[in-house]
Amino acid sequence: MKNVVVAMDSMKGCLDSLSASMALSDGIAEHSSGIQTYCVPVADGGEGTAVALTYGDSKFIKKTSKVTGPVGERISAEWYIDKESGTAFIDMASAAGIALISEDERNPLNTTSFGVGELIFEAVEAGAKKILLGLGGSATVDAGLGACQALGVKFFDMQGNEIRNEITGISLVKVNDFDSESLSANLKHIELSLLCDVTSPFTGFCGAARVFGPQKGASPEDVEILELGMENVRDLIKSKTGLDLNDIAGSGAAGGMGGGLMSLAGGKITKGASTILDLIGFDKVIERADLIITGEGSSDSQTLMGKIPYEILQRGKRKNIPVWLVAGRVKDQESLFNAGFEKIICINSPEIVARSKTEGQNPMDPDVAAKRLFSIIRNSQFS
Question: Are 291 and 345 in contact (CB under 8 A)?
């Protein structure tokens, strides 16, 4: 074995895709001087998407903008633009990410995606003609109305008054009308691609509120309020546009951001994993690979529903390249093996977690996780 491509997704709450990929690459380098590693951070629309799309490409300029954070505070958010092609890459998580707020603040009734709209507007003002927005890692279930509001769409309550405060999850039940004609004129000719890795509908048992609300801090009672609000927005959009968002796969992505930006701001929902791998030229990268190592924070049967490790597995299969899977947590291991992964490595086995706690270490600490990735891959058997 000579050439190993390391293409890790982020390990949520722990390591970004670049840090995880680098830790594995360093572990392999320590193992053998005869193995050449190629570090390729990847993403499927969630956190780290912008970094994955711009890694190693000097054409992209990193920008930092002051925008509204998920609980209304002003924050600095990074994004990227290639002024020559007019292409910008933005992570929703950089402006409305759950990692931006403390555990105590996590409740999607009170969070907004307003800052994401501000970032999109900033990109357009900087000359972007095409924007790829990674949907994932958000703290919100506001149907994307906060972002649309920042882009100029006006929303009105039952008394006909414009809602001027940033829209949050709890605001959705109050929305009685909207004016999308007020969308900033600069945005009407922009190509807006919404990258996501889920097919969730807007509402219902598998929708944004019921599936993602609890993950973002919503109590069972909060989820019911959010669902009522999402149903209200769904019905309003259908009555004014004829579009039923529950018929659109991915409309419930990122707390409904997919559906909101698609129906009110002209966005197009796109499968994140395959789009990103195509954009970074992944098939060319692996042409001479003898092994591909990929992974994510948690792997289970949902991994096989289009997440980045599964998409990488399919591309490896087409070229007869074995693929290893590394994850912080592994369930449904038999299904993963049956799908074709040659080796599955869990870095947080019960024994390892117990040992970490005994040694006073937090298994989720980035430095601890990186060292564990390094040591586990260093000790693996390469042939």
Answer: no
CA atoms within 13 A on the CB side of 309: 31
Q: For residue 258, what are the contacts with CB-CB under 8 A and spacing of at least 6?
A: 135, 144, 194, 196, 248, 250, 251, 252, 267, 269
pLDDT of the residue at 368 = 58
| Distance (Å, whole) CA 128 – CA 187 | 10
What distance in Å separates the CA atoms of residue 80 and residue 224, rounded to the nearest whole number? 37
Instruction: Give me 164's structure tokens.
Output: 């001027």
Distance CA(152)–CA(180), nearest Å, equals 8
**Rounded Cα distance, 3 and 292, in Å:** 9
Whole-angstrom distance, CA of residue 193 vs CA of residue 176: 27
Secondary structure (3-state) at 304: helix
Burial class from Cβ neighbours inside 10 Å (0-12, 13-18, 19+) for residue 80 reads: buried
pLDDT reading at 349 higher than 90: no
The pLDDT value recorded for residue 13 is: 61
Rg (alpha carbons) of the chain, rounded to whole number: 21
Q: Would you tell me the crossing angle of helices 253-265 and 220-241 to the nearest 10 degrees? A: 20
19: left (phi over 0), alpha (psi -120 to 50) or beta: alpha
Q: Which residue has the higher pLDDT, 187 or 251?
A: 251
Global pTM reads 0.85
- What band does 370 get if pLDDT is binned at 50, 70 and 90? low
On whether the CB atoms of residues 97 and 134 are closer than 8 A, the answer is no
Mean pLDDT of all residues belonging to the chain: 88
CA distance 328 to 255: 25
Confidence of residue 302 (pLDDT cuts 50, 70, 90): confident
